[in-house]
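Tokens help. Consider this.
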Amino acid sequence: MAQTVKRAYKYRFHPTPEQAEELARTFGCVRLVYNKALEERTRAYTLQGRRVSYVESSAALTAWKRTEELAFLNEVSSVPLQQALRHLQAGFANFFAKRAKYPAFKSRKKSRPGAEYTRSAFRWRDGALTLAKMDAPLDIVWSRPLPEGAEPSTVTVSKDTAGRWFVSLLVEEKVSPLPPVAASVGIDAGLNHLLTLSTGEKIANPRHERRDRRKLAKAQRALSRKATGSANRARAKLKVARVHARITDRRRDFLHKLTTRLVRENQTVVIEDLTVRTMVKNHSLARAISDASWRQMRSMLEYKAAWYGRELVVIDRFFPSSKLCSACGTVRDKTPLNVREWTCACGAAHDRDVNAAANILAAGLAER
């Protein structure tokens, strides 16, 4: 049975100079309001032990707009400013529920600029999107169509470090489950091979960052030679950001195609609960682990399985998948990383990764 899900469609767009100026001003105001509200909440919590509500923050924003110092906040749409307060409220809710760290201040240099517009702050007509305070619609590159009849409920505009502008349209869409299949697969994540499947298939690690490492290093060396604050340094910094953006885009595209294929071909997908945050503390492997982006892959598998009626099973991180014989169930004392093949006392010869994937699948099916 089809289910209605909220899905974001992201596109590049090319603003006019006036639109770029308006958006840059909006981004700055959003950051200022978020940081100022966070400062007020922190002060109240630290000095008085009191939690500030969204309603109080919203009232404070109204008061700020009436002051001479912050009167410029009236020049941009009020909706992105209110949304910034809602995001801060969600951040504190997650913090008090122990789901996240204490909210951090937004930095001009490190935080990605963005603004969120709800339905009252934009006009959607005949496939054209016009934001509040703008006279003309955005020049969007429609790289893929929106679902027929879709009406955006929220629009998020952002600009990345490579200077590219993006707009994300949140729509409600009906997604039908895929036809059931009999196949199930266990997945062992690695670095030499990105994934090894219980079927015996090994998926090569594209190593996106390594492929562009020389180009990235060259751009970073050029950046280091430029004078701080100069126009040349700004241009060199943009070149570095573009290399990073290329790496990120290729990695995301590869993972989308891979996870879609796994979900389409298998009714049940079983993976390990990897602690990536702990693993990257190994400085000799941190770069390779980050490039593999296992956490992003898991996230994609989770929501795609939910959309298409598949089952994703996550087994315990301490399960001895590499040391367990998938034939007889004997557990070896040690299996060093340099041992890629081994033979069990029962006579079964194992490829380390294929054996681990088979054990992961068996453990996942047993937990169902």
Notes: The CA atoms of residues 179 and 354 lie 28 Å apart. The longest helix spans residues 231-265.
